[in-house]
Amino acid sequence: MKQFLGKERERKNPEGKQRRDLYLRVKCLYQKLDNIYGTKGLVLRASKFDAIDLMSSEKLENKVLALQKILQEDPTINGLKEDIAAVVDSLEEMVVDTCSQKVIEEELQKRVQKRMEEKYEDYLRDIKLQIIKEQNSSPENAQTLKKLGQLEKMERVGLNRPALEVLRPLTLDEVVGQNRAIKSLIANLNTPYPQHILLYGPPGVGKTTCARLALEIAKKREESIFSPDAPFIEVDGTTLRW
Known about the structure:
mainly alpha, 65% helix, flat
């Protein structure tokens, strides 16, 4: 009986059924973005593109507008310029493209890692062959066995830490002349919605060190948005891709 009444209401009010369908589609889009970026990542992107309030709204048009800003990475979008159903169609296509790109990136990273491991094994194999060829007679003499033992020991040893990691300051007391800059940086990071921050200055003044220490301090705050294992990632802007 309830199913019959529901179908009867849908027959009498087709626009209401269409809006319910659109609401479910929009809800699925948010779930997909949450899977791609993570909950915190999605909140940060929404904050970056001025879509937090729209995303939290119960109004369908506001939720769709928030999706537009996030997916098109444009905080200046002020309203829906097309029929809402057409906008949802285009947003679904953009989410599909984003999912495809993420899958491709993950697969590429796996292939790169596999190729690096293969190259490392080939390198060790070439060294072993070179050592054997350098021997005058039988490869199983004392000197060869000693070198092979050293190589096998090298295979079990991981990479050492870089010298910069050992020498870089680990506390604020070890940084000289940048107390005000670090305190300001920590204050900007230690908020529910941290913004992009630009540090500038001559080479060697301590920009990277300040940023690294500020992140470590911000992660220790109970109200920090950064997880305890959030990494500090350095990239070269001249070679950055994606």
